């Protein structure tokens, strides 16, 4: 039977007691973590989010009886005195490990069913069970730590942006479709049958309007909603640290964002090197085959096109003749790979979309190459040009330059893992710049924005906006950490004429543009300052700094990759009456 808390007040948290408290009285409130029943003597650890404290029960029959009823996850109040533990029972792993509380009273405030998994022990529990009982999962020390870190990062960011003169301003959740290129979540407007609000994919238009409204520097820890496929680093709703600045230039945005990330890293006791490295998008694609290069290790992709221009190996020669190339990278100490290991590499390259993968290495007598037609001479030249030594293996793929690099880029990541080339505790931050403004959408025969339609073209490329849009580079930037995109942004278009031209290139008629963004186009005409900004993914930052590989580990109530909240069983059907009120018919 549960007892009452009454007016009992806690004197210490479960992580607070130290040797200096020995001899003092203490009231601790929390959960029973682990019980060790030794007959006439019983120990248990009491837990709250601050830590664990050992409680001893001895020499009082009634108390022992109550304690024997207490099971893991019962909620209890312990009233007692702080004692020093005997030398042989000191636990150096615990901040409270030098002391224990000898209980004089124990109240069971609430009982608990046996949980479906242990909170105290790290068991191999399926993610499904963890998410169904998320309130128990969240009790586990690791998630308590992650959510605590998330809080500290949020506070550090708020403090930093306040010091930099940013206002935190809220923007609407029920709004109009925004143009980040994903599918919208729609909310029926009951009082306007047939009309819908959209949940924001980002506060993009509002933050630009806040610049027009003269707020100079805006930040918001903003929830964003995008109805797209879920992955380890994606959720339907996620949190961005969204910011915008008037009179911004890329170097100013870089400086502010680097400061914000430094403030985050300070929370885990890591100092980061600033300024961050900068790399044009084109270089990232060619050298790393990715727009989010992991720079913690080498394996850089090199171009061997000119070497194979007249190669007797038809596949390479023809690739170069047709505007493609041959690219590859050196895998250090991989000359010793067995037949099975090299076959595995070839398979991986094929899975990544390669027609094939050629490898070559020095042998005791000469050079071995997997495509005989290349010949020893050709292979040796490539090994020399690559700077390979006799312990190394050179892998080569051909095709359109970006395609070859992207395949090798995927292989590069797999090889780094296989060969343990990713050093622990290394943080490689980098800015990617000079993205193209548009991508050609072959299906719909029009241009798509690489970022979003408000991104400004580089001034030196403005003249090509209509004549050669594919060549125009954007004043856009992404910030990358260890192969994850932490965020991205741009300097914005701030004149109506350029904005209208961009909409036309994207295939939006003047009328469509007016319908969707008319209010915004109009606002541009009332004295819009040059401005720019960026959004950082808070979930991703938090996951990386917590050492997690999935953002679900740092989101209190995430959805599964099937887009389901297993705890509250959302989404779910609704009462037909609700649908009628909303003028919605199930079809
Ligand atoms: N709104 C952009 C995004 O969500 C970020 C930005 O351009 O500031 O990706």
Structure notes:
A hairpin with a 7-residue loop joins strand 7 (186-188) and strand 8. The two termini are 52 Å apart. The protein contains 15 helices and 22 strands. The chain has an 8-stranded mixed β-sheet, sandwiched between helices. By secondary structure, it is an alpha+beta fold. Bound molecules: aspartic acid. Aspartic acid is lined by residues 180, 202, 204, 488-490, 533-535.
Write out key terms for the chains shown:
587 residues, alpha+beta, eight-stranded mixed β-sheet, five-stranded mixed beta barrel, globular, binds aspartic acid
- Separate helix tally: 15
Largest sheet: 8 strands, mixed
Helix content: 25-40%
**Beta strand %:** 15-25%
Radius of gyration: 30 Å
Bound molecules: aspartic acid
Helical/strand content category: alpha+beta
- Averaging pLDDT over every residue, what do you get? 95
pLDDT < 50 runs, ≥5 residues? none
For the terminal residues, how far apart are their CA atoms?
52 Å
General form = globular
Main sheet: which strands, in order across? 6-9-10-22-21-20-17-11
Number of strands: 22
């Amino acid at each position: 039977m549960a007892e009452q808390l009454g007016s009992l007040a806690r004197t210490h948290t479960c992580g607070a007691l130290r040797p200096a408290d020995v001899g003092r009285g203490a009231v601790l409130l929390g959960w029973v973590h682990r019980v060790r029943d030794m007959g006439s003597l019983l120990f248990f650890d009491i837990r709250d989010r601050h830590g664990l404290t050992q409680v001893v029960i001895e020499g009082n029959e009634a108390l022992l009886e109550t304690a024997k009823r207490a099971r893991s996850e019962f909620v209890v109040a312990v009233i007692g005195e702080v004692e020093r533990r005997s030398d042989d029972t000191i636990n150096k792993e615990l901040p409270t490990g030098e002391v224990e509380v000898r209980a004089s009273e124990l109240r069971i405030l609430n009982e608990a069913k046996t949980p479906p998994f242990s909170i105290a022990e790290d068991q191999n529990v399926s993610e499904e069970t963890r998410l169904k009982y998320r309130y128990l999962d969240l009790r586990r020390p690791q998630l308590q730590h992650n959510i605590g870190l998330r809080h500290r990062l949020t506070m550090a960011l708020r403090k930093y942006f306040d010091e930099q003169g940013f206002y935190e301003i809220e923007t609407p959740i029920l709004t109009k479709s925004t143009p980040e290129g994903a599918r919208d979540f729609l909310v029926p407007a009951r009082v306007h049958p047939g009309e819908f609000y959209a949940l924001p994919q980002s506060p993009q238009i509002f933050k630009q309007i806040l610049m027009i409204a003269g707020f100079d520097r805006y930040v918001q820890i903003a929830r964003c909603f995008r109805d797209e496929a879920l992955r380890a680093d994606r959720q339907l709703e996620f949190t961005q640290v969204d910011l915008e600045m008037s009179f911004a230039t890329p170097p100013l945005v870089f400086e502010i964002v680097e400061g914000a990330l430094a403030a985050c890293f300070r929370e885990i006791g890591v100092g980061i090197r600033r300024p961050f490295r900068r790399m044009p998008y084109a270089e990232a694609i060619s050298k790393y085959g990715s727009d989010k290069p992991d720079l913690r290790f080498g394996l850089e992709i090199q171009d061997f096109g000119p070497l194979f221009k007249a190669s007797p190996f038809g596949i390479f020669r023809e690739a170069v003749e047709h505007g493609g190339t041959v690219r590859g990278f050196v895998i250090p100490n991989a000359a010793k790979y067995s037949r099975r290991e090299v076959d595995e590499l070839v398979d991986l390259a094929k899975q990544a979309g390669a027609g094939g993968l050629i490898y070559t290495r020095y042998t005791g007598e000469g050079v071995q190459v997997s495509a005989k037609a290349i010949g020893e001479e050709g292979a040796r030249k490539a090994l020399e040009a690559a700077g390979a030594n006799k312990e190394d293996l050179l892998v080569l793929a051909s095709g359109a330059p970006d395609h070859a690099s992207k395949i090798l880029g995927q292989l590069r990541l797999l090889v780094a893992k296989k060969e343990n080339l990713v050093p622990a505790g290394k943080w490689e931050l980098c800015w990617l710049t000079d993205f193209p403004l548009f991508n050609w959408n072959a299906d719909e025969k029009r241009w798509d924005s690489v970022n979003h339609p408000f991104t400004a073209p580089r001034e030196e490329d403005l003249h090509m906006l209509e004549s050669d849009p594919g060549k125009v580079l954007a004043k856009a930037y992404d910030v990358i950490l260890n192969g994850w995109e932490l965020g991205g942004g741009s300097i914005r278009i701030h004149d109506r004429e350029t904005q209208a031209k961009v909409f036309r290139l994207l295939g939006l008629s003047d009328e469509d543009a007016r319908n969707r963004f008319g209010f915004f186009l109009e606002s541009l005409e009332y004295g819009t300052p040059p401005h720019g900004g960026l959004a950082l993914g808070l979930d991703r930052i938090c996951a990386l700094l917590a050492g997690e590989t999935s953002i679900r580990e740092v989101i209190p109530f995430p959805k599964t990759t099937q887009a389901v909240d297993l705890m509250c069983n959302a989404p779910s059907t609704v009462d037909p009456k609700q649908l009628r009120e909303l003028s919605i018919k199930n079809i």
